[in-house]
Specification:
With 217 residues, the chain is α+β, with helices and mostly antiparallel strands. Helices cover 28% and strands 37% of the residues. It is built from six helices and eleven strands. Strands 10-7-9-8-5-2-4-3-11 form a nine-stranded antiparallel β-sheet. It has a two-stranded antiparallel sheet with strand order 1-6. 35% of the residues are buried.
Length: 217
């Protein structure tokens, strides 16, 4: 199980793979094998969860690390790097993140394989990393405006430590309620500001959790 909440003293690596529907499960299986054979043995590894988008076009690996030093030691070892071990797919977009705001503020997500609820990844690529603080101000307003939205159980917005990315990790009760929100988003004004500062890789399709691992497993 993966526990996601703002005051959790871990950092999150997000590896976002773009794939084709016919190859999605092959990629998932490759990441599961990588987790079991390599990732979970690395110093500082805490837990991870593998997600697949319902449209077949994304796979996301969410990995928790005890510290930035642990993460950097892991990625600097080319013998075990994702790029050398997971071949035949597009190179993932990988960054290290911390949670900067949650809604509700004290909420906690307990992520488990085959859970009924679905995950939304709102992926924002900052046009200029120096503008990340401005982007986060608009994001905080957007989260205030979406609070209480039907179907949204909890949401946790992450910022990358290098300033290049910001990603929403939201838990929804259904694809239908998520689509209904997107048809008339309550946070349209701050979202315009966010999109002026970052390229938004918007996906209508939500993700299901297909695998989790942790040091406690």
């Amino acid at each position: 199980m993966l526990n996601v909440f703002k005051d959790n003293p871990v950092l999150a690596e997000l590896d976002i793979f773009v794939t084709q529907a016919a190859q999605q499960w092959l990629l998932v299986d490759s990441l599961i094998a990588y987790t079991q054979n390599i990732l979970k043995q690395q110093p500082g590894y805490v837990a991870n969860a593998i997600h697949r988008s319902l449209d077949g076009l994304r796979v996301v690996n969410y990995v928790q690390w005890q510290s930035q030093a642990n993460y950097e030691a892991y990625i600097s070892n080319r013998d075990i790097a994702l790029a050398t071990q997971i071949t035949g797919f597009f190179t993932p977009d990988s960054h290290l993140y911390e949670i900067f705001i949650s809604e509700p503020a004290d909420s906690e997500m307990q992520i488990a394989a085959n859970m009924r609820e679905l995950i939304n990844f709102g992926i924002f690529k900052l046009k200029n990393p120096a503008n990340q603080s401005r982007f986060l101000e608009a994001t905080a307003e957007a989260i205030r405006q979406i609070s209480g939205q039907a179907g949204l159980i909890t949401t946790h917005f992450h910022r990358s430590l290098d300033g290049a990315r910001a990603i929403n990790y939201g838990l929804w009760s259904s694809q239908e309620l998520y689509a209904k929100m997107n048809a008339n988003p309550p946070m349209a004004e701050p979202l315009r500001e966010m999109r002026s500062l970052a390229n938004n890789e918007f996906q209508m399709s939500l993700h299901e959790v297909v695998f989790t691992e942790s040091t406690n497993s």
